[in-house]
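@channel sequence for tomorrow's demo:
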Amino acid sequence: MSAVRQAIILIGGVALLWATATDTVAVIGRHIGLPLRGSIELVQLFVLVAGSLALLVATAEQAHAKVHLLVDRMGDVGKAAMARLSGLLGAAFFTGLLAGSLWLMADLWSGHEESELLGVSWRWMRLFANLALAATIAVLLGQTFRRRK
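structure tokens (generated this afternoon):
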């Protein structure tokens, strides 16, 4: 496993652990009368990082859920064609998500949108999500057009 992939997995895992820890402290705090203000904002931030990186890693590892009902009954040529079609459709789907997200980001960029309690800048989180989507598209297209043996 490459160092970059290991770093991405580590960062995503740490973000997920922070989301869990933050929510745990917030729940305990609510029950003992010491609420953690802004916990929802922090969990959103950590889950965005963890989810975006998980999507990228799952795509790179080709570990998304797949149904093999028809593909397993095809020959090698059919399987290769379906793999390419799947990659192209996945890239088209994520391109649509990226286009909509870029549109929102461009529309709200100068609005300096921040979370209510902690002042987390959502513009940087949108940028992070868009970069992760763009990387996912690049991985999908690279897998689709790479020579299959």
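heads up for whoever presents: The chain has one domain: 3-145.
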